[in-house]
TrEMBL record:
It comes from Rubrobacter tropicus. Consists of a catalytic RNA component (M1 or rnpB) and a protein subunit. The keyword Ribonucleoprotein does not apply. Belongs to the RnpA family. It is an enzyme of class 3 (hydrolase). This is Ribonuclease P protein component. GO terms for cellular component: ribonuclease P complex. The lineage of its organism: Bacteria, Bacillati, Actinomycetota, Rubrobacteria, Rubrobacterales. The gene is rnpA. The keyword Hydrolase applies. RNaseP catalyzes the removal of the 5'-leader sequence from pre-tRNA to produce the mature 5'-terminus. It can also cleave other RNA substrates such as 4.5S RNA. The protein component plays an auxiliary but essential role in vivo by binding to the 5'-leader sequence and broadening the substrate specificity of the ribozyme.
Length: 112
């Protein structure tokens, strides 16, 4: 359920639809695998390794809790912004949920 190859990230960035929020941006692109996959991009601008890894763990947990209700065959790439380092878990979850709604992940309408 993860994107790992840089070419997969590039494909989502170039051909996908984007939601740009205060804490992070989410890019989405349909895949042929029939499953929802996540890729994370957390640069050094966000903070040191401890901060970046904590943020990655939080985003993966949020993704895992929201993905069963999404049910789409999509690749999602989340690019964290520096304000995300001070955001609470609830704030991250709210913005992630808002991003999925804006991208119409639940309606399978991304890329149409």
């Amino acid at each position: 359920m993860r994107l790992t190859d840089s070419s997969e990230f590039e494909k989502v960035y170039r051909q996908g639809t984007a939601y740009r929020g205060k804490l992070f941006s989410v890019h989405a692109f349909p895949n042929e695998l029939g499953t929802l996959r996540l890729g994370l991009s957390v640069s050094k601008k966000v903070g040191n390794a401890v901060v970046r890894n904590t943020l990655r763990r939080r985003l993966r947990e949020i993704f895992a809790s929201l993905s069963p209700e999404a049910g789409s065959a999509l690749d999602l790439v989340v690019s964290a912004r520096p304000p995300a380092r001070e955001a609470t878990f609830v704030e991250l979850r709210e913005e992630f949920s808002k991003a999925l709604a804006k991208l119409k992940v639940r309606d399978h309408a991304v890329g149409e």
